[in-house]
Design a protein that fits this description.
This protein is an alpha+beta fold. It has a single domain, classed as Gamma-B Crystallin, domain 1 (Sandwich), CATH 2.60.20. It contains 1 helix and 6 strands, in the order H-E-E-E-E-E-E. It starts with a helix and ends with a strand.
Length: 105
């Protein structure tokens, strides 16, 4: 009877090690934004899910052509509350400075 819990523990440990080696999932498509003060266009191609991307001081037209929703923050490092959600395939002209973004399924 003791082999069953031991076998489960070994199997669980092996599965955990295997899952750690899997690559992170990424969105497909570009996320386009404009950095101030000169409205320089920047493109994030296929950003990784759940990773925070600092945008600098972005404002103006922002376009989410990824297959993920983008959580928009007004603070760097995706800190503070979510300012807005830019859904997959949509665009928005932000009048306020946005500082970071995280992509979610």
């Amino acid at each position: 009877m003791r082999t069953r819990p031991a076998l489960l523990a070994v199997t669980a440990a092996a599965l955990a090690v295997t899952l750690q080696g899997l690559p992170a999932h990424a969105a497909t498509g570009p996320f386009i934004y404009h950095v101030q003060p000169d409205e320089h266009e920047v493109t994030l191609n296929s950003p990784v899910d759940e990773q925070c991307y600092d945008l600098g001081q972005a404002r103006g037209l922002t376009q989410n052509d990824t297959n993920r929703d983008a959580l928009i923050y007004t603070e760097p490092h995706c800190e503070g509350p979510v300012y807005s959600t830019l859904h997959s395939g949509s665009r928005h002209a932000y009048s306020h400075i946005i500082e970071s973004v995280r992509f979610v399924r």
